[in-house]
Amino acid sequence: MKIPFIDLKAQYRTIEDDVRSRINAVLEHGQYVMGPEVHELNEKLAEFAGTKHAIACSSGTDALLMALMAHGVGPGDAIFTTPFTFVATAEVIALTGATPVFVDIDPVTFNIDVESLRRAIAAMKSGERTGCRLPRCAKDLKPRGIIPVDLFGLPADYDPIMDVAQKHGLFVLSDTAQGFGSVYKGKRSGSLGHVAATSFFPAKPLGCYGDGGAVFTDDDELSELMQSVMIHGMGENRYENVRIGINGRLDSMQAAVLLAKLNIFPGELEQRQRVADAYTEQLAGIPGLVTPTIPEGYKSAWAQYSVLADDRNLIQKALRDAEIPTAIYYPLPLHLQKAFASLGYKEGDMPVSEDCAGRIFSLPMHPYLTNEQVAEITGVIRDAVS
């Protein structure tokens, strides 16, 4: 493609010396798993997010799973989340034996709709399901937690979510896999909710050169539990196993890469905002096209720049013909995926998610996208619909 969707090569050219130096240091000391780079990364991630604890781990999926396992989530528990997200958000719920309960999204932010969340929890507790879509097994479930998703880099609306959680005695696990670096009312992602999980997959705003993730919390006990879960349920030493856990450790080389990238991350967030501002300005007024809305007091990390289009196929074809890549996040909401068919959801149950899935697509987004490239992309779109 003429314009890359994500330009990791351009990023590497700016940090090559630092990356190579840090990787060489790992090769020299030979502590390839949980080496000093991992401990340094944990300290710097916690400082960046504004939390007491950060624990780097093997992936964003494992980060979510560790948090759920540390909370003792299991069969009979209901975890409320959005169907308009990557499968990992709900997959980890099912892996614990618990049940994902899907809640529709806000049509403007694409994040979990708080009023729908309130209704779903109330319906499950009361048994009165009129006007609320719940899984087949809802009558046998106990509400335990909420997983809001910071979709496309924009934080969910945490203040009312936390109020709902407190009222019903639930924990909040922030899925900020796409949102690390974002801000909600003066607080950085990672510090929102009772615990937060992020991903360092290469395509993320802060990504390594493989799989990686992290969990964040201010809760000392929860931090200790998640560290134990991450290392096979380890107790006082590596051969004492006090609970069932996973192998969720981060490799030292990935930590080395992340340390180099974390140094330039604040500047890259500013450049992502520059690109987003240019897109929004140049796409304004195009018929049948809706650009992202950022509520007051929020800052997006702009993991993606996603728009809604009345004729998505027409615009994507025009961009493809111009050698400009696009992507669709997400073409089929989770409540309609085969993997969750046993829950009994059907088409029409989550109308906003289903409508967005049929109209949304994402444009190239990275800190190294030039103003000229943005102008070329938006020009193709404008010509396609004119």
What features would you describe in this structure?
With 386 residues, the protein is an alpha/beta fold. It folds into two domains: 8-260, 3-Layer(aba) Sandwich (Aspartate Aminotransferase, domain 2), CATH 3.40.640.10; 265-385, Aspartate Aminotransferase, domain 1 (Alpha-Beta Complex). It contains eleven helices and 13 strands. Helix 4 (88-95) links the parallel strand 2 (77-81) and strand 3. Helix 3 runs parallel beside helix 4 and helix 5 runs parallel beside helix 6. The chain is globular. The mean pLDDT is 96.
Number of domains: 2
Biggest beta sheet summary: 7 strands, mixed
Share of residues in strands: 5-15%
Helix content: 40-55%
Instruction: Count the beta strands.
Output: 13
Integer average pLDDT? 96
The CATH homologous superfamily name of the largest domain equals Type I PLP-dependent aspartate aminotransferase-like (Major domain)
Residue ranges: pLDDT <50 for 5 or more in a row?
none
| Number of H/I helices | 11
List the helices and strands and how they pair.
Elements: H1 8-29, H2 36-49, E1 53-57, H3 60-70, E2 77-81, H4 88-95, E3 99-102, H5 114-126, E4 142-147, H6 158-168, E5 171-175, E6 183-184, E7 187-188, E8 195-199, E9 213-217, H7 220-230, H8 252-283, E10 289-290, E11 298-299, E12 305-309, H9 312-321, H10 351-359, E13 360-363, H11 371-385
Parallel strand pairs: 2-3, 2-4, 4-5, 5-8
Antiparallel strand pairs: 1-9, 6-7, 6-11, 8-9, 10-12, 12-13
Helix pairs in contact: 1-8, 2-8, 3-4, 3-7, 5-6, 8-11, 9-11
